[in-house]
Amino acid sequence: MTQATELVEAYRTGALSPVEATQQALDAIERYDEQVNAFVLVDAEGALAAAKESETRWHAGTPLGPGDGVPTSVKDALWTKGWPTMRGSTMIDPAGPWDVDAPSVARLRETGAVILGKTTTPEYSWKGVTDSFTYGATGNPWDPTKTSGGSSGGSATAVGLGMGVWSLGTDGGGSVRIPAAFTGTVALKPTYGLIPLFPPSAFGTLSHAGPMTRTVRDAAALLDVVTGFDPRDWSAMPTPGRSFLDGIDDGVGGLRIAFSSDLGFVDNDPEVEAQVRGAVDVLAGLGAEVTEVDPGFADPIDAFNVLWWSGAAKVLSAYVVDNRVDPGLRRVAELGAAYTASDFLDASTVRMELGTLMGRFHEQYDVLITPTLPITAFPVGQDVPDGSESPDWTDWTPYTYPFNLTQQPALSVPCGFTSAGLPVGLQIVGARHTDALTLRVGQAYQAATDWHRRTPSLEAR
Questions:
Q1: Angle at the Cα of 86 (from 83 to 89), degrees rounded to 5?
Q2: With left for phi above 0 and alpha for psi between -120 and 50, is residue 121 left, alpha or beta?
Q3: Fewer CB atoms near the end CB (10 Å): N or C, the chain?
Q4: Which candidate, 417, 62, 4, places its Cα nearest to that of 212?
Q5: Which pTM was predicted?
Q6: Which residues are catalytic?
């Protein structure tokens, strides 16, 4: 079984135990991780002990929550009590102390999740692929010679290969959605503040945490687990009053869907565009009112780069920077350090104007649909695709970072494969605070298609 909701039902009926599910996940790690490098830390003994405790609770009819006993991984950017959080960096002291959980990790533990270990990330999650001097590069489940995307690439690859049922990632400019699109998995960047963060990110209010799963239903279930007000996050939203699974099967009949194939400024791979258009046709066939229309904004890449590169400069300001640091990170941090306060405020103004524009746009349209990415996975170990004119990861992720600026919920679901057998992602963007509606649209699409049911055929070695 690959769905957490199915696992929980099997636990409830006694058809499967958390110990069996955890062992299956550990077996998958043993079979595949040497080829794809998804994990930086695996605690098999601790996971099996937690699974045994979960099994006891299920037998007694006293599970702790909707994720009790579900094999889970956590991106190595979120603090985990008792385990180092190295963030792909050679500059962090693994000795710690590591005595605090991030709020979302604490929620996982409180509700009985079985945490298998931590997944790979590039240094400080700064780019759209997953490689670092510390842990090497992470490959794609469909072809390990291709990138998994990033920066939550380890989590996406782990989920794609059954090395755990779901994972928790972070997204500052697309970092859960990029690898979801490249690996044929599902990921949600929720409304900012819905999943509390601590410690705060050096990249500021661009950075979100988000669920990474095989299905939209599981993304909603994991969101139920990891949301909840935390006073350490000054921008944390109140604890939701209802489950994100409520109404998830209500369909799209009568919903007003805006479809933009290119946002007015993007060139897509033809196969990507064909698959995305086919997905939009599915939603129209399900009763949605689809209008092909651009939101009407210019590419905000320059403003995003000012904010993101400034964050990179802040990250490295605490260290003596030398050749142990990713050269790309050093380059953008140098750019970031040269920006003035006026530059930062100008970029923030662009951000606010974009947020206002999208707020008004969603008065007319319930959701916006775009490709998640204009391309499919390229060779592993590269920051950008072959032939790219720019060294910057933002050059090939034009559909993702705008919605970190606006803090809207954005969901990526698989919508097909190219002739080379590589996945394509569909992005569903909702107005702020409409996470449940965004998930509902994704669920309607998945219920009508089977792309999410396809699994990689990676040979065990």
A1: 165
A2: beta
A3: C
A4: 4
A5: 0.98
A6: 75, 151, 175
